Amino acid sequence: MNILNREIITLPEHQNKMIASGWGSEVLEKTTVEKITYLSDGLKVKGYIAYPNDSSEKFPCIIWCRGGYGNAGAIDKFTARGIFGQLASWGYCVFASQYRGNDGSDGHDDFGGEDVNDVLNLIPLADEIPQADKNIWGIEGWSRGGMMTYLALTRTNIFKAAVVLGGIADLRCNAQESRFMRRLYEHSLKNFTEEEFKRKCEQRSIVNFSEKLPKETPLLLIHGNADERVLPHDSLDLSYKLLKHKIPFRLVMLEGGDHFLKSHRKEVDEMRKNWYDRFLKNL
Q: Over the chain, what HEC string results?
C-alpha cells in the first residue's frame, strides 16, 4: 500500500454552498475528494485524490501539479474540494501532490529536482482506487506546476494528454523580468553558488531540452498575455521548440489574461475538459 492515510474532505455548509456556486453542484453530489499521505522515495508526502462516486465503471486518471513554492501555493481542503472535485465530475480520477517538505510532508521542496518523483510516484496510487483506469493518464500543471509537468513528461511516455497553464518553461529568462520569479528563486535556490544556481535553472528549463518531450503526448498550452508573474513568452518560446521537434500542441494566448486567468475561467475550463475528453476518452 502506497497510500498511508486517507481522509474524506467534508466542509461546513457555507463552504459547500460556495463550492456549488463556484464549481457546480455536481462536484458535491457526484464526487469524493480525499486528503492523503502517500509514500514517495520513502518520504511521507501529503496530497489529494478525487474520483467519481459511480463505481460501476473505470475512469481515466489525471495528475494535477500545483504551483508556488513551499507552503505558498499549497492547496487547502476547500480549494481541493473545488478543483479536484470538478475534474472528477468530468469523469476522471485525480491525483495531486503538495510536494515533499510542504503541508507537513517529509523532506524539503526541491523546486523541480528530486520532488519531480513526488509527481511520478502518484501513478502507483491508482492501484488503490477501484474507479481508476490505470491504463489512461493525463497530466496538468499551473505555473510552477507547469515546470513540474514538463519535467515529468521527459521521464515517461505514459501520459496521453497534457495541459499547462501559465507554465514556467525558462527559469533564467524570467529571473530578470518578473519580480515574482525573482522571489521564487531567492527562496528555492538560495543556498547554491551562482554557478550551481545557473546549472539548476538550466536543468529545470524545458526550453533547453524540449526534444525529450514525448511526441505521443499532445500539449495544450494556455497563457494569459497580461501575465506578469510567469511571462507569456515562456509558452511562446516553447512553442517554437515544439514546432521544431514536431511535438503536437495547441497554444492559446488569452487577451488580458492574468497569471490566474480569472477573467477567462469558464473558457479555460471548457478548453481543459475538451482536451481531456478528446484524448483520454475517445480512444
A: CCEEEEEECCCCHHHHHHHHHHHCHHHHHHEEEEEEEEEECCEEEEEEEEEECCCCCCEEEEEEECCCECCECCCCHHHHHHHHHHHHHCCCEEEEECCCCCCCCCCCCCCCCCCHHHHHCCHHHHHHCCCEEEEEEEEEEECHHHHHHHHHHCCCCCEEEEEEECCCCCHHHHHCCCHHHHHHHHHHCCCCCHHHHHHHHHHHCHHHCHHHCCCCCCEEEEEECCCCCCCCHHHHHHHHHHHHCCCCEEEEEECCCCCCCHHHHHHHHHHHHHHHHHHHHCC
pLDDT recorded at residue 190? 64
Q: Which residues pair with 55 in a beta bridge?
A: none
Q: What is the pLDDT of residue 269?
A: 97
Please say if the pLDDT value at position 185 is more than 80.
no
For residues 31 and 75, give the distance between their C-alpha atoms in angstroms, rounded to a whole number.
18
Mean pLDDT across the stretch 79-92?
Answer: 98
Give the residue numbers spanning the domain of 218: 3-281
Question: Considering the entire predicted model, what is its pTM?
Answer: 0.95
**pLDDT tens column, 117-130:** 999 999 999 999 99
The answer for residues whose C-beta is within 8 angstroms of residue 279's C-beta and 6 or more apart is 138, 160, 161, 218
Number of domains forming the structure of the chain? 1
Edge-to-edge strands of the sheet including 219-224? 3-8, 31-40, 43-52, 93-97, 59-65, 132-142, 159-165, 219-224, 249-254
- Which CATH number covers residue 21? 3.40.50.1820
For residues 63 and 142, the answer to whether their CB atoms sit within 8 Å is no
